[in-house]
Amino acid sequence: MADTSDLFEIMHTTRAMRRLKPDPVPDALIRKILQAGVCAPNGGNTQRWRFLVVKDPRIKQQVQVHYKRAFDEVIGPRYLTSAPPPGVTREAYMRQHAAVQYLTDHFHEAPVWIVACIEEAAAPTRWSGASIYPAVQNMLLAARALGLGATLTTRHLLYEKETEAALGLPSGVHSYAILPIGYPMGKFGPVGRGPLADIVYEDRWGHPYKGL
Ligand SMILES: Cc1cc2nc3c(=O)[nH]c(=O)nc-3n(C[C@H](O)[C@H](O)[C@H](O)COP(=O)(O)O)c2cc1C
Questions:
Q1: Does 90 fall in a domain?
Q2: Alpha helix (H) residue ranges in 89-199
Q3: Whether residue 1 has pLDDT greater than 70
Q4: CATH code for position 136
């Protein structure tokens, strides 16, 4: 079933959905996603997050040119030489690579993007990221709960100046992610991750956590 309200089911099946139909997404659903986003924690509750909803095909196309250039120059070659991550078979990794390539070519065709930004004069820090990515994850979970596909993307940052200019961001506003959102072509499925035992320790670094 596309829609579900079980939180753990949602978390286990919120994976990058890169193949999206161009069909429009109702504003009422985008509003629900944004509302879920601003429920997230943020430093000091200062709420310096800003969200740009992009539907204009010309703007998306201008950004896609740089998104694809970054793939051709950096991301594509890296994928071809890197090993599959923990919990992912080589076959699944190759499928992911094909999906990444697909999104690269069709980035601008997603009917709606949410660009997650922070308004701050200073250069971005770890604390800045910590105040926007919880909102981003909330939005990914909300999209999944509504049966919409989305992907957390940051590749445009390889051409930050050019893409932020194409998005028309004023100075003092930094983008942290672009979420292309639409109805998925495929089905939601479980995420592939390695076992907890490999990454969780108790009291001392490297000592297995016995609670697993
Ligand atoms: C910081 C960050 C940046 C990412 N940037 C991109 C991106 O630019 N393009 C993309 O297709 N996926 C991007 N992803 C999605 C990851 O590739 C994806 O989460 C990971 O491969 C795990 O796959 P899954 O979420 O489908 O389980 C990004 C994820 C994170 C956390």
A1: yes
A2: 90-106, 126-130, 133-145, 160-166
A3: no
A4: 3.40.109.10
What length does the chain have? 212
Assessment of whether the complete model's pTM goes beyond 0.90: yes
How many domains does the structure of the chain reveal?
1
The per-residue pLDDT of the chain, averaged, comes to: 95
15 C-beta closer than 6 A to ligand 1: yes
Question: How many Cα atoms occupy the beta-carbon half-sphere of 114 within 13 Å?
Answer: 34
Helix, strand or coil, per DSSP, at residue 76? helix
Distance from Cα 134 to the centre of ligand 1, integer Å: 15
- Domain annotation covers residue 190: no
Q: How far is the CA of 8 from the centre of ligand 1 (A)?
A: 20
Evaluate whether 154 touches 54 at the Cβ level (below 8 Å): no
Q: Does residue 105 lie within any of the structural domains?
A: yes
153 lies in which domain range?
7-181
- Quick: pLDDT tens for 144-181: 999 999 999 999 999 999 999 999 999 999 999 999 99
User: 12: exposed, middle or buried (C-beta count within 10 Å: 0-12, 13-18, 19+)?
Assistant: middle
In a domain? residue 207: no
Task: Select from 132, 137, 151, 187 the residue to mutate for testing ligand 1; criterion: most ligand atoms less than 8 Å from CB.
Answer: 151
- Nearest-atom number in ligand 1 for the CA of 85 is 21
Residue 195 in 3-state DSSP?
A: coil
- Residue 178 pairs in a beta bridge with 115, 153
